[in-house]
Structures are given as C-alpha cells and as structure tokens.
Batch of 2 targets.
Target 1
Amino acid sequence: MNNKYSKCSNCPANHLLDDKRKALIERWESKRDSYLSRTKKIKLILLGESMPASRYFYDLETDYPESGLRYSLKREFGKLDLSDSQFLISMSRKGIVLLDCALCPLHQLYDNVTKRHAATYCFLTITHETISKFPDTPIVTVFPSNRGWLKSEIPFEIRYNVKGECTFSDQSGLSDFYKELITKKL
Ligand SMILES: [Zn+2]
C-alpha cells in the first residue's frame, strides 16, 4: 500500500511519515475497516483531523480511561456502562463510523496553519476517495478547535454533506442530532 502514502508526497506532514508510523496506520486502519465492514449501512460519518499519537478510537488495546474521543463519545451517547468493545459494536449498529482527514501524523506539526494545510491536503489526496463511496451520508466534523480542513478548499459535494461541527473534546448535541437524523430517514 505504499502507493497510498506516495499520494501525500507534497503534504506538509509527509516527512513525518516514517516506517514505524506507517505500520501503526496499517494496523489501525485494518481495525477501523473491520468495523466499517460490519456496519450494514453507514448513516453518519464522524470526521476527525488525523489518527492521534498513541491511541486510536478503534484500537481496543489503546486505553481511553476518562478522556479522549472514545470516552467522550461514550458519554455523549449515554453508554458509559458499556465496555469499550461493546461500545464500538453499538456505534457500528447505529451506523456511525469515524474517519480521519489525514494519515500523516499531524500531531507532530507545530503550528495550526500548517496542520490545517496538511489536513486539507491529506483529505483531498486520500480520505476524499473513501468518503466519496458514501455520497449522501451526513458528516459531522470532530476537529480540535481552530483546526481541521480549510473548508473553502473542500469540494462542494463533500461540504454539502457536513451537517454539524463538534470539537474533539466536546460532542454535546451529537446524540440528539443522530436521533433526528434516523427518525427523518426511517
Ligand atoms: Zn499527508
């Protein structure tokens, strides 16, 4: 899958993509993709900035004790009583999946402007293709505040599907939004 990374050769974060990180990305993507394939119909895409430094939503071997996205989504959906593994299955049953704009390790970049350029570049060269497979699926962004893609550079058909914006630390209202979404569509 080296081809995937070569698409990002002009990304401002590409030089940070070493073999160790690539191996981690492969592992995390395969965990994510197994949840994606178990999801019968994808009803909502949560879009993050990039896979984090050392823990990942879909990797149960990485811990989210009482912080981070897996924990805060669990709280938002009222599922704190579930184990992490049960929670990921419940998200998959709901049709909610998490994708990221970037494969490159954006957490290693220093300034937000460069991070935004990298998130935009990575999204357009790599993740755009995945998201395009779900053309009418609503997207809610979960970017860290003042970060994420540069909206003006994102194709209209993707921007049009963005129905909400949360932050990485606070997804209040997402559960209500999801309920509205499925009642309208069912
Ligand atoms: Zn990149």
Target 2
Amino acid sequence: MLDPKKFPVIRRWPARHPERIQLYSLNTPNGVKVSIMLEETGLSYELHLVDILNDESRLPEFLALNPNGKIPAIIDPDGPGGEPIGGFESGAILIYLAEKSGQFLAADPAVRLQTLQWVFFQVASIGPMFGQLGYFYKYAGREIEDKRPLQRYAAETQRLLGVLDTRLDGRRWIMGDDFSIADIATLGWVRSLREHYQAGGWPISARSPGFLAGYSGAWRGQLCSGVSTFRGNRDRACCAQ
Ligand SMILES: N[C@@H](CCC(=O)N[C@@H](CS)C(=O)NCC(=O)O)C(=O)O
C-alpha cells in the first residue's frame, strides 16, 4: 500500500489502483514522454492529470514528490526491493522505466552510452531551448517588443534541429534500427514545435525540411501514425497537442 505520510501526493490525487505505477502528468512535451514509455513497455499505470496552468504542481502535496514543482513525476509501488519509490525529471524516469522493463535502452555499454547521450541532448538542449522559443513565439513573450530573445532561441532551435536531422539522415530511429528512449524523449518536443507552436512556416523549415515537414520520414511516420508510439495516448489526453 502507498503510505500518504511518505507520499502526500496521494491525498490530493487518490490512487484507485495503488498496485500500479502512479503517473502525475499532463499533455505537454515533457509529460507525454512518460505516458508513451508506459504505453510502449506495457507497464500498468494510473494517470493523474496535474493542472499546471492553475499551479497544481506547486501544491505542497505535489512538491513533496517533486520539490521542483514540475510534471511529470511517478510513484512506483513496486520499486527496488519491492518498496515504493517516487521519481521526477522525465529523463531519469525514462531510464528507470527502461531498466525496470528491460526495454528501449540497450545493455551493451557502448550503445547505452550513445542512447543516453541523445536523451541528455534532449533534456539539456532541445527541451529548454524549444521551451523558451515557445514562450517568446507563441505565449506571453510574443508581446515583448525587443525581438532579440526570440531571435536567439529561434537560431538555437534551428541549429538543434539541424543536429537532429543530421543524426537521423539514413537512420530509421535516433539509434538506428532500434527504437529507444532517445526517440521517446525527443518526439514530443518536435511535434510541439510544429503542431502546437505552429512554427512550420518559419525559416527553420527551409533549413530542416525533414523535421518540420515530416520529422524525417520514417521516424515521423512511425511516431505519428498511431501504429505504435501514440497508442492510447490521444484517449488519455497525454499527447503533445
Ligand atoms: N526537466 C524537467 C522539465 C519539466 C517541465 O518543465 N515541466 C513543465 C511542463 S512541460 C511544467 O511542469 N511546468 C509547470 C511549471 O513550471 O509551473 C523534466 O524533463 O521533467
């Protein structure tokens, strides 16, 4: 059983299935990573929507799980040694779930390093830069007269898309033939850029036609066709749209 003293979050978001992984999330580019991973691994989970626009992620019950006050976060009732464990930061959660399920992160040390480097590339570069671009292009920051911040993040986004396009050239997935947590980490942000920020008409698309027109062929086709990765996510309101 999950102890509310150890996990106050379950007081605010009660668990109907406490034996399942508890996911606290929303349909954002970071949130969707974990729901896609859970869908793809087949691990059973229970979703709790956290309304970040109304500051639910800053409630004390949520902060007890993630002191940084951001989604996604999880509780695994069957953690190491069979003990419940909580976790936050989407990249760390992806690695934990990959190790728990034995899927989407190779055991071979060289492949593992390369996969993790692309996961960290997403978490450290793509997420923060695309997120700032979103603020200055689509949200409150677009009212700001000084366009230098927008130009700065647009240029960096364009550069990062180029890095990704080059990596995907001739590869089906970021790691080649094998679908991995690097793809799961990245796809929500690229989708968001094109479909949510509606940045498709940008100069970026001239530089990175693959990504913004179709997210590099097979990569995009697989991810967005509903064949595998987005299975169930639309219904669960956990897609990046
Ligand atoms: N580095 C974190 C970023 C998480 C993050 O920025 N989450 C956003 C949604 S995409 C959030 O919760 N924002 C609410 C807020 O900042 O108040 C991760 O990868 O998990």
